[in-house]
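Can anyone check this?
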Amino acid sequence: MKKFDYIISAVAFCFGLVIFYVTRNVEKFYNGTPGSAFFPRIIAVVMFVVAAALAVNTFLKRSTYKKGEVIFNFGSVGTQRVLWMFLAIILAGISMYFFGFILTSLWFTAAVIFIMEERRPLVLVVSAILLTLVIYVIFTIGLQMYLPRGRII
């Protein structure tokens, strides 16, 4: 299904354009070091390269998808994990706004580990607490940066 590959390529290219547009007024460099727009612009360039590579690969590809071939199997375990991860990421973004980094990181880490099929409660809880603590210490003590606080807590 070449049409689908071209659509994905166009969407990736548009995401790259959006990133460039959103970061147009953000400093690229600050006192000789990379500024806030540096990393997003790198991501945008990667999006352009990936979009171009997909379009060229699709154009040059000799074989085409067979009629009736299943491209996405929503019943497969892998696809379901990806969909659960998308949902968890969206909820984490919303949770970060309301509850801040610490509470969001605790449940999000446990959720990701659970999605990856670790079911032992002790592993879930200990991993979530340790990872959140390590990230907190690295950013607040090591880098002297404050992590996001929530609007509610």
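Reply from J.R.: I decoded it. The radius of gyration is 20 Å.
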